[in-house]
Amino acid sequence: MLKAHFKDLKKKVKSVFNSMPMLYEIEGKQLFKENKIPTPLFKAYTDSSSIIQFAEEIGSDVMMAKAQALTGKRGKAGLIRKVSSAEAEEYIQSILGRDHGGKPVEIVMLEQPLEIEKEYYLAVMLDNESGKYLIIASSRGGVDIEEVAENYPDEIFKQYLPTAVEPFSYMFVDLGKKLGFEAKTLTSFTNIMTKMVNMAKNRDLTLVEINPLILTPDKKIIAADSKVVIDGNSDYRQVDIAAFKSQRARHTDLEFEADQAGISYVQLDGEIGIISGGAGLAMATCDILEFLGSSPANFLDVGGGADETKIEKSLEILSRQDIKGIFVNFFAGITRCDDVAQGIINASKVFEIKVPIVIRLVGTNDKEGIQILENNGIKAYGEMEPAARKIIELVQGGN
Amino acid sequence: MLKAHFKDLKKKVKSVFNSMPMLYEIEGKQLFKENKIPTPLFKAYTDSSSIIQFAEEIGSDVMMAKAQALTGKRGKAGLIRKVSSAEAEEYIQSILGRDHGGKPVEIVMLEQPLEIEKEYYLAVMLDNESGKYLIIASSRGGVDIEEVAENYPDEIFKQYLPTAVEPFSYMFVDLGKKLGFEAKTLTSFTNIMTKMVNMAKNRDLTLVEINPLILTPDKKIIAADSKVVIDGNSDYRQVDIAAFKSQRARHTDLEFEADQAGISYVQLDGEIGIISGGAGLAMATCDILEFLGSSPANFLDVGGGADETKIEKSLEILSRQDIKGIFVNFFAGITRCDDVAQGIINASKVFEIKVPIVIRLVGTNDKEGIQILENNGIKAYGEMEPAARKIIELVQGGN
Amino acid sequence: MAILLDENIKVIVQGITGKQGTFHAKSMIEYGTKVVAGVTPGKGGKEHLGVPVFDSMKEAVEATQATASVIFIPARFTYSAALEAIDAGIDLLTVITEGVPVQDSARIRQKALDNDVVMVGPNCPGLISPEASKIGIIPGKICSKGNVGIVSRSGTLTYEIIQNLTVDNLGQSTCVGLGGDPIKGIGFNECLTMFENDPQTKQIILVGEIGGTGEQQAADLVKKEITKPVYAFIAGQTAPPGKQMGHAGAIVHGKSGTAKEKMRILSEAGITTVKTSSEIPLKIKENL
Amino acid sequence: MAILLDENIKVIVQGITGKQGTFHAKSMIEYGTKVVAGVTPGKGGKEHLGVPVFDSMKEAVEATQATASVIFIPARFTYSAALEAIDAGIDLLTVITEGVPVQDSARIRQKALDNDVVMVGPNCPGLISPEASKIGIIPGKICSKGNVGIVSRSGTLTYEIIQNLTVDNLGQSTCVGLGGDPIKGIGFNECLTMFENDPQTKQIILVGEIGGTGEQQAADLVKKEITKPVYAFIAGQTAPPGKQMGHAGAIVHGKSGTAKEKMRILSEAGITTVKTSSEIPLKIKENL
To answer: Is the pLDDT of residue B152 over 70?
Structure first.
């Protein structure tokens, strides 16, 4: 069953619209350190003096320099390299600012190189299907784990743990043995597992992935990498995590601004800007533009219960994007059509909307909303497809 | 049922030998503050400048000065008084060092006086019978609650809560209503309850008692007193609490020294010092001395699995007490008689034991223990009563 | 008959005195839902919208014998409110609130499972059995009574589909908005089974989205156990590939998260899939 | 017959490779207890005292089908060890460890109750059915087989009483040391009921202490349901009044905590109470 699903994973879609943001490796490792999960010594690069200091700290002239990025394949992109302290500065300067996955590298991490006896893969994720923590582990770590899952499905081990259960070392003895740990390394492993699950619980992490988890020749188990995904809904109670630099870096400036205003906004590269409410309808709005021969310039979901201000803000954000038209598409449930209409009118008073705009407004308080628009000389559509056709016609003219 | 049990509560014994130590009021209130349970403003008195500062802080010239003590009846003893800032210094100096319950007053707390609309009683205790948290509350607070329990048993409300359950405000709505809270005060109360239970759980408190809990004329609920009992077994994970000043103050110096060595030692006023293992046997050892016409000079339980060092330490402690004889009484289970014997021999080499000593040694490895004693010319008894008679005879001579 | 709710179901609104609670409780009452009580701690004893307000769910359930509750409470207090509803003995718990920490949702879900409570949501529009009762925020006027059952992961998109059906004289038995969060209460399969067993329901519409594996599991179930015709629409068909939940997510979910893949699997299970929501009524009418 | 343990019970020692674990496991084996396994994480696969050591209780139970475990583990790890034993499906859990945080004990106790596990301790000497099996640290050589059942809140004091009985040719059916901690597993009443139903037991001795209310509850039970003669000794008769658990403790326990009061209540229930432990054999012989 596993095998069947692993062909073309690289391009797998897991919604661009989710609120499950990733941390930088170095931020993940800060959380590891807080939770006493062993990591190599590490330090953020600040200037050349930090390199000298770090070399002293680790008692070695050789260190890893790792560009911090929210997308993978850093190794292949030449963004991770083992360097001597003499080479480090030049190498780091060469990668700082380099584009990776559409973002410039802004942070470089210095790390103690490790001697490796064996590499493991380890992940704790909050599993959507079961609603439990799912632990995934393999003794074939350090490589593309998805290929391992495809080629050696029997060497991928899984264990579920209810979220309400307090984790203890004994719960992970079986798993540790399957991975081949024994004696002292077995207890090290079960302790690390316990800490990982506790960290996930206490810090509202939806994924903690370590690949590779390293066994050193002197039988220490160390997390050599970190991939940590947080739960955006928990920002209010994980204020320090929400403030990590990666949380700003994962957005374009406009996206970040929208995010701060509680709006889900993703920049795309089409011609028509959209404003909608509800992820499903917003996606369907993008879809219908494509199907009808145009393209969305963005995904924008004001979220449930949006008020006038959010509508105004959405229009303001679109006004700063290079677009040919705006398609406002609401089927209001918890949001109210009069709020949407009022927001549009308010916005149009504050700044000029220079491109054609088509508004489709149905649902809660739609009569009131339509009335507000009509009072301002704007016609509202009742159905999505005719409205979509209209905005495309306005944008593309007679073509 | 309640009524039947409340006649002579003042002298109720709850084991002098327990490890459930109480905190000073001011320490309890520090915990309240940490847990956002509302208290009056308070401050520890340090010198006359602290009085001036505090008067400014509370914006009033009048304050409460409260001697800190581990025994009750402070009010009746004149150790609590409402004073002006001009009077405070003199009053505080008059009570500092004054004896209360066998201990000199060492700490005085300054506190903001409160306007009172109504007084309540509130307690969260870890209940031994049920193994659950037991909440006890009454709207007849501020007075002797045991009398309330006797005279108005229907106005004492109880609620049990399993220790594993996460407390939430909704669980305390019923209780709050029984106490007569409503509207805003109801939610204040349920919030306070939630915080109290969380505090008890997180800080290993076996009792949190507030009497009175005060409702002010402007409808604020405030903890005007605190009685907090901690769990000595949890000292290793509540290091800051274990370090509170009250934890030293509840012992005599000798008791404190014994406590630090893991020995349960309580000074009494009899003639024969005892060393025993197990609280039950140690108590029975005290009892038998009384029954046979003598008296114990102390209670001393070395605890389970005591080694030579603890025995040595016990003898050393007794050597500093004014006693006429020593009765060592062991029926060893997890402790080993050879360890006990060796400890006695070791001690006798380090310092002279000036009073008669009778040793009764039975149980695990008793042959080995008796052999060790015999090698040193000491005879061991096999039964408790003959041994007790012997030490009394040695101490009291031919009388 | 419909599923989950009929005209007799008694509903308590948690957070009834808040802005959203007030607005939507009113709309529910106007629709004919038996809203028998509201709960707002500290406001017990009052009346709001003509409905008695209680300080706790326990009191509200004891006083009204209601079996359902709907939560309009800010995200950070939703966990406690949901546990309170379950502790009070509710059978059907609908959580409208958006932005609930996923770990909270996981724990509510577990507690609901342990107590045989049907949980819908969070971050969902709720449910409606047209002309009988609605719980949540689905606009009542777009619905009409009939024999199409709808189960959807999307909120607003569902309204779209309901409206299209109503315009085309295809009434609905019950519409269930499951909610868009990764961890939620009941899913497609629970609803498919209920619709299969509901005499009123003759066709079933399933509205999915990219991400997750609920649609694939639904396909499995439909193949094996559902005899009524099923139609499906998946939102996000043109969405660009985005971030995934690490390799762990890939190991668990494989590539199954794309709209294209979902539609392929659903089609293979004999489900009629459509590209735009407006096609659904046409397809249903074709098959009638 | 005896209660709780007989010659067939298979026992796992948790913490077998530690100092205490080694010493007392050896003593249990020498006494004839079927110690079938030890558990020390990280030491699985070895042998210790001729017994296989496992990394986890789960493995040990699976390999040996043992139904009892005894814990010799430092206090701060006892909570986890106890939960592990319960999770592994043990029926009888004996916790010897002293100094366990009371909240931990409360939670272990709850979990034991939820899983129908008989928990003895913590801070207890364990149990022994003479000439059959012992679990814990009661010195075997002072015991002899017979028909006196003993249940005690004290450890060392119980040895005293056992020895007096043995010297006087009064053998024991089972001796249970409940432990001296405020919150513990089974209490007097569970044991009294088992002794009542045990054909081997003809007399029962109850050893109490000051504090708590277990003795009073025992008195109630004896009055109502125990037909066999019961003898009681309470330690701490001369103890000076000490600190109490605040007023809350007083409200719950009243003045019932003194030895004098306990003895009065026990006497009223028809129990023969004695002032010194050495009187017990005399009283039993009088009544034979």
So the answer is: yes
Give the DSSP per-residue string, chain D: --SS--TT-EEEEETTTSHHHHHHHHHHHHHT-EEEEEE-TT-TT-EETTEEEESSHHHHHHHH---EEEE---HHHHHHHHHHHHHTT-SEEEE--S---HHHHHHHHHHHHHTT-EEE-SS--EEEETTTEEEES--GGG--EEEEEEEES-SHHHHHHHHHHHHTT--EEEEEE--SSSS-SS-HHHHHHHHHH-TT--EEEEEEESSSSHHHHHHHHHHHH--S-EEEEEE-TTPPP---SHHHHHHHHTTTTSHHHHHHHHHHTT-EEESSTTHHHHHHHHH-
Chains with 3+ CB–CB pairs under 8 A to C are A, B
Q: Is A133 designated active site?
A: no
pLDDT tens, position by position, C139-153: 999 999 999 999 999
Q: Closest Cα of chain B to C80: distance in Å?
A: 6
Q: Is C247 a catalytic residue?
A: yes
User: Using the beta-carbon criterion (under 8 Å), do D107 and B163 form an inter-chain contact?
Assistant: yes
The dotted CATH code for A251-396 is: 3.40.50.261
- Chain D contact partners (≥3 CB pairs within 8 A): A, B
* Token pair in block for residue C12: 């308590």
Q: Which of B20, B206, B283 sits opposite D236 (nearest CB)?
A: B283
D143 domain residue, yes or no: yes
Here the CATH number for the domain that contains residue C80 is: 3.40.50.720
- The pTM assigned to this predicted structure is 0.89
Q: Is A7 exposed, middle or buried (0-12, 13-18, 19+ CB in 10 A)?
A: exposed
Distances in whole angstroms, Cα of residue A320 to Cα of each of A317, A345, C207: 5, 18, 34
Q: Residue C254: which H helix or E strand, with range?
A: none
Considering only CB atoms, B5 lies closest to which of D246, D254, D276, namely: D254
Same domain, D116 and D131: no
Write the pLDDT tens digit of every residue in B133-149.
999 999 999 888 888 88
Q: Which residue bears the tokens 């050589």?
A: D141
Nearest Cα of chain B lies from the Cα of C101 at a distance, in angstroms, of 17
Task: Looking at the structure, tell me whether residues D114 and D219 fall in a common domain.
Answer: no
List chain D residues with CB under 8 Å of B330: 156
Pick the CATH number of B20-40+114-250 from 3.40.190.10, 3.30.470.20, 3.40.140.10, 3.40.50.2300: 3.30.470.20
Band of the pLDDT at B11, cuts 50, 70, 90? very low
- Spell out the domain ranges in chain A: 20-40+114-250, 41-113, 251-396
Beta-carbon separation of B177 and C80 below 8 A: no
For chain C, the domain total comes to 2
Say whether C102 and A287 touch across the interface (CB within 8 A). Answer: no
Boundaries of domain holding C134:
126-287
Contact A39/A216 with Cβ under 8 angstroms?
no
- Across the strands, what pairs with B157? B137
Q: CA-to-CA distance for D271 and D260, rounded, in angstroms?
A: 14
| Check whether domain B41-113 has CATH 3.30.1490.20, yes or no | yes
Residues C83 and C206 in one domain: no
- ipTM associated with this complex: 0.89
Taking every pair of C-alpha atoms in chain B, what is the biggest distance, in angstroms? 79
Please check whether residues C210 and C108 belong to one and the same domain.
no
Q: Is it the case that residue B96 has pLDDT exceeding 60?
A: yes
Which residues, listed in sequence order, are joined to residue C134 by a DSSP beta bridge? C128
Cβ of C87 and B170 within 8 Å?
Answer: yes
Give the model's confidence band at C96: pLDDT under 50 very low, under 70 low, under 90 confident, else very high. very high
pLDDT at residue B8 tops 50: no
> In angstroms, rounded to a whole number, what is the distance separating the alpha carbons of residues A99 and D140?
76
Residue A3 has pLDDT above 70, yes or no: no
Whole-angstrom distance, CA of residue C150 vs CA of residue C147: 10
Domain boundary residue, one of C120, C144, C161: C120
